[in-house]
Amino acid sequence: MQRPRRRCEGTAMGAIVLDLRPGAGIGPFTLGMPICEAFAQIEQQPNIYDVVHVKYYDEEPLKLDIVISFPDHGFHLRFDPWSQRLRLVEIFDVKRLQMRYATSVIGGPSTLATFVAVYTLFGPTYPGTYDKDRGVYTLFYPGLSFAFPIPSQYTDCCRDGEAELPLEFPDGTTPVTCRVSIYDSSTGSKVGVGSMMDKACTPPLPAGSLYMEEVHLGEELWFSIGGQHIPFGASPQDVWTELGRPCGIHQKQVDQMVIHSASDPRPRTTLCGDYFYNYFTRGIDILFDGQTHKIKKFVLHTNYPGHADFNSYMKCNFVIHCSDFVGSYNQDVNSSKGTITASSKWEQVKEILGDCGRAAIQTQGSTSNPFGSTFVYGYQNLAFEVMKNGYIATVTLFQS
Q1: Which of 121, 254, 341, 362 has its CA 20 to 30 A from that of 170?
Q2: Cα–Cα distance measured from residue 167 to residue 101, given in angstroms and rounded to the nearest whole number
Q3: Structural domains of the chain, with CATH
């Protein structure tokens, strides 16, 4: 059921030139793009993006950005951890990356990105800001900023937080850019180094976008996306009509959980004729019965880093209406207005639905899954796969 793994390493290394698009992105990376699309771009050019680091906060993955870093090319891609969309591009080593703007290039080992060079290429702008504590002067253009370190002996050039433009020191030299930030300018925020970096927001989704569209689950065993209800028992034709062509169709070879079902005496080695429709771009799998061709299960993926399926699916922004389920599980908890989402932790789920007992251990083996096992907790019609950090990896909706 897994999408083929995208390879993030290559075989060669060399200087690259990327188009700089203020307020929009750099090279093939566009602000607002989902992290899976960024990995797809990396996969298409493995000889260019030959060394790729993925950084995230394992214990609290929603607390800090998910970062894709290209150390050989000197830039980061920062993704909002909630939406998993690109919010900020940082060029942290301008000498390693050459940027093309219009018909000119700047940066790289041969073209220093000095203050004068930046001012000449991008034109006049308003005076920037000087961070006395960091000794950094930041120059802003719409959706673009350049940070320049100011030697301590020349801090008088930036008195009162401003400087004469273009900035040149008394000895005739001019500062060289130490960091470039590319961000969405629609909010009017100025983004730079330090705390100013946190002001970068993901751009609004375009009208009609399906990404991050909420998926709803309810007690009558229905599944709703984009206002369209897809019930259990629906046919493949019904699903095509509502969701469009699936990204892939996967034959389920073995039902590994059938041994836990008292109503199904088949041995677990029995070949299974059931099949999945995989909607990787929606974070959804739909399982059909191989004989009746009716829906049996919905599987929703959160796409958290640190899970074996990370980057196989885009994040599914699901909402489980707990008022529909709580009465069946936990009569003592007043959760009539509670909901469970892709950002909920397992402890929050238990507070709403109650304790369901011990978990089944799920693992794909240490060779194929370096992140270790996960835990599967089952309720009537619902199963939660939980990571070691307490966050939900998948939710499965089925008929008891």
Answers
A1: 121
A2: 21
A3: 16-199 (2.60.460), 214-325+336-398 (no CATH)
Helix (H, G, I), strand (E, B) or coil at 223: strand
CB 31 within 8 A of CB 87: yes
Closest CA to 10 of 46, 41, 42: 46
Report which secondary-structure segment, H or E, holds 121: helix 115-122
Residue with tokens 């793009």: 33
- Look up tokens 């698009």; give the residue: 21
C-alpha gyration radius of the chain:
25
* Contacts of range 40-46, beta carbons closer than 8 Å, 24 or more positions apart: 40/6, 42/6, 42/8, 42/68, 43/6, 43/7, 43/8, 45/10, 46/7, 46/8, 46/9, 46/10, 46/11
Measured CA to CA, the distance from residue 39 to residue 6 in angstroms comes to 7
pTM of the model: 0.84
DSSP per residue, 8-45 = ---S-----EEEEETTTEETTEETT-BHHHHHHHHHH-
Whole-number Å distance between alpha carbons of 66 and 86:
9
pLDDT in tens, 126-183: 888 888 888 888 999 999 999 999 888 777 777 655 566 667 777 778 889 999 999 9
